[in-house]
Every structure is written in structure tokens, then in C-alpha cells.
Input
Amino acid sequence: MTLVAASAVPSVKAARAWRARPGLMIAGALAFCAIVYLLPMLSLFGWAFQGQGSSGASLAQLSRLIGDDTYHYAFFTTFKIAAITTLICALIGYPYAYLMATTGPRLAMLLTAAVMIPFWTSVLARSLAWMILLGRKGVVNEWLTGLGLLERPAALLFNSIGVQIGMVHVLLPFMVLPIWSILSRLDPGLPRAARSLGASPAAAFIHVTLPLSLPGLAAGATLVFMFAIGFYITPALLGGPNDLTIASLIEMVVRDLLDWPFGAMLSLALLGLVALVFACGAAFAGAGRIAGMEGR
Amino acid sequence: MGASLQINGLGKSYGPSQAVASVSLDIAAGEFVSLLGASGSGKTTTLMMIAGFTPPDAGEIVLDGQPITHLPPERRGIGVVFQNYALFPHMNVARNVGFPLKMRRVSAADTARRVAEALARVGLAGLGERLPAQLSGGQQQRVALARALVYEPGLLLMDEPLGALDRSLRETMKTEIRRLHRQLGITIVYVTHDQEEALTLSDRIALMDRGRIVQIGSASDLYERPANAFVAGFIGESTMIGGKVVRDGEAGQALLPATGGPPLPARPGGLREGAEATFLLRPEKASLSAADAPGSGLRATVQDIVYVGEISRLTLRLDGGPELTIKQPNRADAYQAKIGEAVKIGWAPDDAVLLAA
Output
């Protein structure tokens, strides 16, 4: 037996060698990750905690961040926008996902396409499209005034309304898909059993369907919130001067003020916040589900 | 405590395909009735219409004298045990069983007492804190039963409840279901594709095929007096031979096989002489003896013998005629034939049935 295995099947031997050192198989990928992700991350840390002179570390950037109200305001704005976006996405996304999961196959396909096609389109293109739609002479204002709902065109652009519309549109799929993923795998016998046991359709939803789909809602909310905190393009294009988000602030600090150490500190703060949100979401929904790996 | 159930002319179509066609059933309070049939025979659709999940196209359903055809499921007060149990995975056993009471706004103290009683009744006392995922299949089945019985419905519907269990557990649960039925006096409508389950559990069996009830009756009705060849073929083993009805002796009848051979005596049915018919003989009804033994009988040759433990299954060819399958007990006092041997085979004419072809 040993003889045969050793002489006749060299490929098996090679496979065994790989198995003995699995690190070898992913060495290339690891190297790529190290160069593309780890090194920049380390230099970010380096800049953020660089001392004033040529040597030593310093917390100067951190105290600047903590000490200045302007930056607090940017963080507050970012959180507010992210929270409202998450809430609106949940309010629209849950019923949408529910319909997608419970309706007939044809309508479900249509609904899926309606979510996925914009999802595959560039964020920049979509935000520019909203600029055209929401402008003072844009399609939306023309309809609203044409239908007599508004006397004068409303300001839908370069303020928080524009930011919310754009961000909800971009981030809605991240809410819909995790919820749909759970609802579509939910045993339809469960709400049915609840009905047979005396629950009205509403009671069956509240006591059975909703609690069982909460992990999907949590995963979707975490995703949307994480993306919303770091969002740059949409607030930058559709927002006004009052909608200064952390991402816009970083861009300003790095590109206009050329203050790389402080930009690095702001980036790290943003990263920390995203990690915190992820940790909260993971505690509730499971890390795998948020990362899209369908952890159960 | 059991409720009576009348179904009149119930029908349901999905597009061009008719799932249930004019099914009528009259079930007495406390009766155990099985809907037996292959998949696609309409048995589950019928059950779902009784439960209220599938709106019928035609017909009406009357529970204890009250028409319930158009009531939503939650207002029918019927207990349902689903094939996969449908236990709520996010609730522990006690909350699962207490769910119907919560929906009926029963007080917390009453709920606790009745849940404990229901769990004790199915042999799960003390397991209220477990989650469904921490229970075995048999235990989950018991929880589903307790949950469907805790609000004391008059009618319990069961949809292939033993399908997911292994063989030994199925036997235990069958005994359990029979015991609960006897104890509670509840009416049960039980859907299954397993004829043995239907035969051992039910007072009456409704055999369904292509959306219709082919025959309804007791287990022995269906086995001994099948209405047609479909019923005979579905339930139990049988030999069926086509031919023409002829007179046999004074008042008897027999079937002259189309393939040739001797007339086969059978119980006189409603068929007139000369009619096309199918002769039906259950394999355990015939007895075998040596070719030169005294008494009447038909001559045959043993074609094949399969030993299956308590019996042997023999294939015989009647001289100049068709083949018959018979079962011979493996006992020293039963005649043990050999392959190729000429033998004599006989049966009581009352044990053979003539069915309209």
C-alpha cells in the first residue's frame, strides 16, 4: 500500500505537502494584504501619533481632535445623518424585503432587480443623477409644482434633504438584502402555525416573523450605519455647508490644509467608530451575517 | 369533547389542475379518520382547507354544526400538528405551548398551570425551559402535540406527523397518539401516505386519488372489500387477474381468466355473468397442498419461492393460466413446496373478490 501511494501518485504527495503547511497556499494573498492594507494602516498610525520634532510619539493630534468644537460638530452631523439614513432605510427596507420574500416569483424577481441594478451602478453616477433630479428646475420639483402640491420649487439639493435622499438610495440594498436573506429562509409554516394557534395575521407577524428576522434587521442596520458614517461622495455632492461630515472634513484637512498628521488622526477616529458599530452589530446579529457570510 | 366535522363538495383548483374535486366527508365527534393517498392525491390540500389556510373554490366545511368555510384559521379553534412540527425556534418549550393561551388572553397563572398539564400529558414534564433545538425529533413532536392540544380544540388535524421520525420512534408515537385520542375523546383527521399508519390508527380511512375520495371505510372494509382495483392495489398486496365473470356451481361466481386457464372461484359480487371483471386475491388467503392431496383445488406449478422470515412468498402458475402470488407461513405444519413442483392451491371463494373492470 505505502509503495503504491509513494511511487504511483506523486500529485497526492504534493497535496500532502500543501496540507502540512497551509500557510504556503495563502502566502501570496497574505503578502498582497500586507502591502495593500497593513502597511498603509501602519503609516496612518505613524502620522497620527508623530512627535513635533524628528523623534518620539505625541498625542498632540488626539488632543486637537478632542479639544475643538468644530470637530465635535462634524462627528455629531455624521452620526445624525447616519442614524436618520439607517432609520429611513429600515422603514423602507423591511416592508420591501418582506414583500420580496413573500410574493410570487415574478414580482419577487422584479423587486430584486429594482434593488440590485442601482446597487451595481457607480455611487458617483447615482449622486450626479440625483443632482439633476433634485435641482430647482429638476424633474422632482417640476412634478411637485406641476401637480399643484407645491407653489414654488422646494430646496431639495445642497442641504440635508438632498443628502438623506441620496444616501438612502445608495444604502437601501444593504438593508434590504440581509433582511430578505433571513425572511426568504424563514419556514412559512411558522407564521401559519401561529395562525392555527389563534394568532391574527398581525399577531403572527409581531410574535413570530419579526423576532425571527431581527438578526437580519440588525445586520442591515449595522451595514448601513457603518457605510453612512464613512460616506463621502453623496454628502459632498448633494449636501450644503451645514452638512460637514467626518469624511468631508478629512478630505478638507488633507487636500486643502495639507495637514496629514491630523487627517490621519481623523481617519483613525472614523475607523474606530466603524469598528465600534460593527462590534455592537456583531454582538446582536453575528459577525458572519454582517460580513455577508450568512453566519447562523 | 370531540367536534363533528362535515365536508360537502369541497373543491380546489390551481390553474388548470384540480387538486381537490368535490370531496365530501362526514366525521362523527371523537372519530379518528385518516386521509390516505400518494403525494398529489389532494389529501394535504383537503387538510389545509379544513385548517383554513387554503380557501376552497367550492363546497362547505361545517364544524360542530357551525359553517367555518370562510373563517380565518385563527377563528376556527382547530388544533394543527404540522409535518415539520413548526415549533417557534425563538421560544422555549413552555412559551411555545403557552402561545395559543397567550393569544386567547388566558391569565399568566392559568397559562402556567395548563402548560404544565399539557407537557405532563405528552411525557415532557420539566422540559419547559428547553429550546426546541435542544430537543430530539420525538420530543419536538410531543411539544407540537402539547401545543395543539393545550387549548382543548374539538378537532385535531395532523399532517404526516410521523414522517420525519425514525422507525422505532414512529411506533412509540403511534401508541402515544392512540392513547391521547382515547383519553381526550378528540376528533382527529390524520393525513398520511403510509397505509400501515392509516390501518393501525384510524377508525375510518378515506383513500384519495387525484383529488377524490376513492373509498372510505374501516381498515377491513378497504382491505377485504375494496371498491375497485385502485384501492386493492394501494392497500396491501394482491394478485389481480382480468377476465370474464362466469357462473360457478349453484349460486357462485368465478372469473374465467382472459389469458386462459381454469375458472377462479370468488365471492359473488353485483356483477352479471359475462361482464369484464378483475379477480382479486390477497396472498395470505390461499393455501397450498401436495398435488395428490385429497380435496378440491386448482393445479399449479411453483415458479419461485422467496423466503422473508415469518412467511415465504411463492409465485405459482396455474396449469394453462395466469400467475398467482401467495404467502405461505413458515411453519412445520404448513406445506413446504419446492421450485418446479406441481402443487394444488385452494381458497375460500368468499376470500376472493370480483371487481368491475
Remarks:
- Confidence is low (pLDDT under 50) at residues 1-8 of chain A.
- Chain A touches chain B through 18 residues (CB under 8 Å).
